[in-house]
Amino acid sequence: MKKLEEILAQCIDDVMAGRSSIKDCLAKYPAISKQLEPLLRIALSIQKPPDVKPSPAFKVRARVQLMEQIHAKQGITKQRWFRYTRQTKPILYKTRFNMVATIIAIVLAISALGGGTVYASRDSLPGDFLYPVKLGTEQSRLVLATSDTAKAELYLTFANSRIEETAALVKKGKPEKISIAINRYDGAIAMVIQRIDASSEGQDLAEMSEVVALATSKHLDVLDGVWDTVPKEAKDAIAQAREVSIDGYGNALLLLAGENPEKAMEINLATMEGRLNRAKAKADKNDSEGVEIASDEFARLSGSGEEIPDVAMGSGSDSYIAELLVAKRTSHHLEALAQVYGNVPEKTKEAVEQAMTSSVRGYERAVESLKKKGALGDLSEEPPIPEGIPDKVKARLLKPEGSTVEEP
Amino acid sequence: MLIQQATSGDADAFGKLYDMYVDRVYRHLYYRVGNNADAEDLTQQVFLKAWQAIDRYKKTASPFVAWLMTISHNLVVDFYRTKKNKTYLEANDTVDDSTLSPEQVTEARFEQQQLRRVILQLPGEQQQVVLLRFIEGFEFKEIASLLGKSEGAIRVMLHRALARLRQILEKERERH
Known about the structure:
The structure holds 2 protein chains of 2 kinds. Chain A is mainly alpha-helical.
């Protein structure tokens, strides 16, 4: 004998599926029909609610905010999984999803907002009434991009916009809104790198990673200008943006290194020299903090450069020219750093020395590799330490990596 | 496939899941809170929570949308708990049946409002079972998987929920 709850559930299923009527069910179970009927009638009187829908504007706005929150939490530093191995990266499937419904929703949203509104939102800045419309329009463009490369290009465009907005906010005297643009910049750069890495290897990957490396290098230049003019309380946000730029740059550079190590090294040397010029300019202005930041960035970029030959070898590319480029440019870098070293107060010298150490280590590694390949040519095995560097500093620079120098 | 991608951390794939299910989640929440502002707010929270907990979804065998409904349920419970002065608002239900006279439409609408109010007074899991079965249209098997119970237990819960609904409705009718 079936229990009441089983019969009730069966009857509900049958009536809802059109296989039976309430009357049929009650006739089938006459012994319990009096208990069954009221429950069945209540159950079947519960109707699905009317098809209320959220407004298209809400859907776009909520999607933008959701993606921003996700990206802000992921952050660029979490994207560094591919730095050492491509095997640990998340599996990103390339199957195209049927996006018709999505596209319709977005188009409806844009229509609901009106073309004029969308146009007017183009120049809006964080905090402006139309800024969410601008972000929503960006999301709609993303939906229409079907390949990883196309998405990477779009995310890079958004990252560029965030940097432009940051500069514009400073000009307009609204530094308190900078962090909004910077957080979104972080998310956009993270997505650029993720999309490039998901794109097929070869031409697309090489071209996109080069574009991103150049763009993020340019972002650093723009952020230099912003840093110089922004009030003290907004400097943390700019420092965060610089971190994001450098990390994004480093990741793009290493992706490029796997495809075209020569190009990767050329770009990195140019970016390093940008930092050197900045350090020199800041030293001339007695801006110790500026010198320290530029020297630290130089050292980090030098470290990224050292990884290029390893990545190239891992991808089966020849790293000879990349190593030669480093070795040839080191004397120039050390001379510039020596000049800065002589121009800064004692407390700042440590940062400059750290930059020199990175440069020397890069040279030593390049020379060692070239020597093994029998391609040393007229390069000296000894790093080209310029005149004027104090002996104790020179001794520290020439000491093998990992060893310590006793202070006199 | 899309869900697999999202559980692997692909934010874009999760964005597509949002596009697929945002209407349904909103509709469910609107039914439960009865106004646009709260339904919108909770809809956003549901998707953010879903992303944060997406690792846990891997372990369940129920449909993704059903899982979203569970998150919605928990948020609604919190919503009413933290806003104790909130009453169950009348959702702007419409009864769409051209065969009914205006009086019949009004009466049907009243009945649906009354039923909704009573459903929302059911205890947590009973309420969830009724909503998932009748409002969201999930099968007993799916509900059982989602709530981590046997199908038999779900049937018992539904029976009790309907008996309770009957009891409350009868009391209300006696009062009027």
